[in-house]
Amino acid sequence: MKKVKSIDLLSSPIVSSLLTFALPILISNALQQFYNAADTTIVGNFLGFNSLAAIGAYELIVGFAIGIANGMGIVVARHFGAGDIEKIKKAVAGSIVIGSVLSLVIMFVGGVWMYELLRLVHIPENIINEAYSYIYIIMLFFLHFFTIGRQVC
């Protein structure tokens, strides 16, 4: 089995440690930006302004999911830092259960009250139907997997 190199942020040179630690996060964020740019370009050029505005409305849902997933990831990271394998296993399992339940709740609430939620955050009436359709698809297929993937990684 290959030995994994550890990063000691307390005693090793700070610049190289931070770069090593931050590089995967930087790459992940860059890939997400490329996806957003491609999505914006394709929708803006082929479907028009209203569709592009409707896609922007889904940031409400994704932002909430990212916040929940990051919070659960902090619990896992804390136990990882302490080196407590049993608590890591429990935290990951708990995160999967909580993420799954919250995803189902969000999908239900979104399915039943999405129009009201969109009006609550002042989505213009001329794009509300497109925003609803886009968010509904996102909620059904991606929210659950996105949340679990973020917290476990």
Overview in brief:
With 153 residues, this protein is mainly α.
Give short descriptive properties of this protein.
153 residues, mainly alpha, 6 helices, 82% helix
How would you describe this protein?
- There is one protein chain.
- The protein has 6 helices and no strands.
- It has helices at 14-46, 49-56, 59-82, 85-120, 128-141, 143-152.
Task: Give the SSE map.
Blueprint lengths: L13 H33 L2 H8 L2 H24 L2 H36 L7 H14 L1 H10 L1
Structural category: mainly alpha
Tell me what portion of residues adopts beta-strand conformation.
under 5%
Contiguous low-pLDDT stretches (5 residues minimum) are none
What percent of residues adopt helix (DSSP H or I)? over 70%
Rg result: 19 Å
Question: What's the number of extended β-strand segments?
Answer: 0
Please give the largest β-sheet: none
Give the oligomeric state.
single chain
**What is the helix tally?**
6
Mean pLDDT: 80
Distance between the termini: 21 Å
Rough outline = flat
